[in-house]
Amino acid sequence: MKSTQLLATLLLTISATAMAAMPMVDGEVRKIDLSAKKITIKHGEIKNLDMPPMTMVFQVKDVAMLEKVKAGDKVQFTVENANGAMTVLTLEPAKK
Q1: Domain residues of the chain, as ranges?
Q2: Strand 25-33 relative to strand 38-43: parallel, antiparallel, unpaired?
Q3: Contact between 60 and 79 (Cβ < 8 Å)
Q4: What is the mean pLDDT of each run of 10 residues along the chain (96 residues)?
Q5: Taking the CA of residue 28 as centre, how many other CA atoms within 13 Å lie in the half-sphere pointing to its CB?
Q6: How far is CA 68 from CA 27, 31, 64, 90, 91, in A?
Q7: What's 63's DSSP letter?
Q8: Could you give the residue ranges of the DSSP H alpha helices within the chain?
Q9: What dotted CATH number matches 23-93?
């Protein structure tokens, strides 16, 4: 039992460390689709994905993030390629 708890703790630590290493990306919300759990963002370069600036649709890890923003909001976010699906992991208002 202790080895299972140790493994779970290790995996959470690795995951938290990996997320902390992801760069925050500047963007502007263009559209929100709550029912599809998607957000369209005009964004700057996403260095961890080697992606140039563009406007694209992302899935979100947690739909609750979408309830805190609206079209036109400036945001900062992190994103990962989860098995071919570009997924927003964190989303917050841009620092002024």
Answers
A1: 23-93
A2: antiparallel
A3: no
A4: 58 46 92 96 94 96 94 96 92 88
A5: 6
A6: 15, 13, 7, 12, 9
A7: G
A8: 2-21
A9: 2.40.50.320
